[in-house]
Amino acid sequence: MPNKSKLKMALAAEKGTDFNKLKLHKKEKLANKKKAVKGTVEKSNRKKTEDEWEDMEEEVEDEEARSGAEFVAEESGSEEEAEGLMKINFDEIDESDSDSSAGENDQEVSDDEDDEDIPMSDLEDLDEEEKEDMIPHQRLTINNTVALTAALKRIALPISKLPFSEHQSITTSEPVKIEDVSDDLNRELAFYAQSLSAVQEARKKLKAEGVPFTRPIDYFAEMVKADEHMAKIKAKLIDEAASKKASAEARKQRDLKKFGKQVQVAKLQERDKERKQTMEKIKTLKRKRQGADNEATNEADMFDVAVDDEIGSKPSRKDRMGPNKRQKDEKYGHGGKKRFKKSGDAMSSGDLTGFSAKKMKGGAAKRPGKARRAGKR
Amino acid sequence: MASVYKSLSKTNGSKEDGPANGVKKNKQRVLILSSRGITYRHRHLLNDLASLLPHGRKDAKLDTKSKLYQLNELAELYNCNNVFFFEARKGKDLYLWMSKAPNGPTVKMHMQNLHTMEELHFTGNCLKGSRPILSFDSKFDTEPHLRVLKELFLHIFGVPKGARKSKPFVDHVMGFTLADGKIWIRNYQINETEASKVTSADVEEGLKKKEKRDKTGGGKETEISLVEIGPRFVLTPIVIQEGSFGGPIIYENKEFVSPNQVRSEIRLKKAGRYNARAEQGIERLAKKGELGLRTSGGRAPKKDELDTAELFA
Q: Among 1.20.1250.20, 3.40.50.300, 3.10.180.10, 3.40.50.10480, what is the CATH number of B26-256?
């Protein structure tokens, strides 16, 4: 602010007023006023010419729309300032009117040329006080429906008149709904379903028109993907399958390893159980045999004879040994643990066979001396 | 004699064709080219698309990015009435221009999520130059700018009947779907199988098989299943111009955020991180100074009454 005195500036600084904001505020007011005036004028004009408006050539609208677009493309820089402003206002009003007539509900806030566009999202994280001073701006939407339809009309193929085989395009009867675009699986599924339904419909139509649809098996021609490309894809598929198989195998092996120990333990236990059972059997048989000594004619024994023989047929080791060996074994022992054989234990210390109270009291005859003993012999 | 017969039969044929069609024929030719500075993926995608468009004419890269109106002359030179132009920016962003050559309209779109046939490893395949079925979402008919887009897709991706290198059978389908304000494009092979038999191709599409069964229901017709061929890409419309590479803008997408802006915002965010931290440090220093905890700077601590210097002064 070069035209303000220093004192005033200082005062303003003290108060904390922002000149830019003030300026913006003023501009807003001005713009609102202008708009209101123009709007009323325009509306009255519109009302007068409403019935004519319907019948008007598209060209006129086109022209207006074009000029509007030109402004936004900033190609109308050479125009005079005042005139430009006028025109701009007109154009903006036209724009919004045409939009609303087309059922568009875009909230457009027109703005002057030198103001920068500020997106709405940036406004949300401002303070309340600052918000009051701001004029919200948005990027201007250009949607010149009239020009668009005109352009479409110019290039459009007469699809309804053409036979289907000319264009081969199918539009779905209902819009494809995709809830979440980032959900890959469902999105692709929707695309797939759309194309599939189109194909089914197209096949019906093409067959009705007598156009060949299916490629015969013996029709060979260049494909979009070359053979080497397909070979690569095949190799990749095989690779994938192989790796899948390998990983499955590895998992199986791991599981086996985990359970292998349990299996082994179970087997050992089974073996143990079997042995115990046979031992039991033998014991019972032995008991039975002892009973058979008393009652030789026991019916049960008579049936068990064969089993007895079977089990008792094999003579034990002790039976096979000669008497000499048996004696020696009894004396010196055979087999078994050799260690701590001579050390005392509970049994040996409790054994009082070699003890007599008499001997302890010295009552027993003393051993004669050596000479006497020798003399005695 | 043979020539006479030929000429006679030709005239006959054309006469038959003329009244039967009644209206103008669907006659399209597409000029396919890119700007300079595209990456290999962009180039491969362009090749893939060119292989799908037998009515296309591939040309060398265009030297300029600012004088795109030159494309009109090029199209005229090659007798093309459509232009399909890849514009690469900064070696990473790809914009797709589609235009009806002599007098518009032109559509500029941003291409994202592009995957070429080569890198997708799909098992589908189709004849080079067979005519596709174009499947459009019905949302394309809701608004005028979308209808313009649909018409352009129809002209450029639809192979006209009797195009020079086209093949007589229909074995692939192109899907154009509108979702999230973007156009998603997919290309599938049409796989026909006997109703009872299940081929290996079906196994790959195991996920979708059930649905297919439901749809076809049976009958003596062959079952149809689709196998994707590729490529895949997503387009975001940006602007529509009335002329061909020129003229007033008749549609602009408000929701489009340019990739430059996205990148700059990310950068700003990163820069903001450091700034916030630095500010915190300064604040802490100031706080300490305020409490008189710093040796230099800040306020000196208040003299305590019981300080030794005070007591024994």
A: 3.40.50.10480
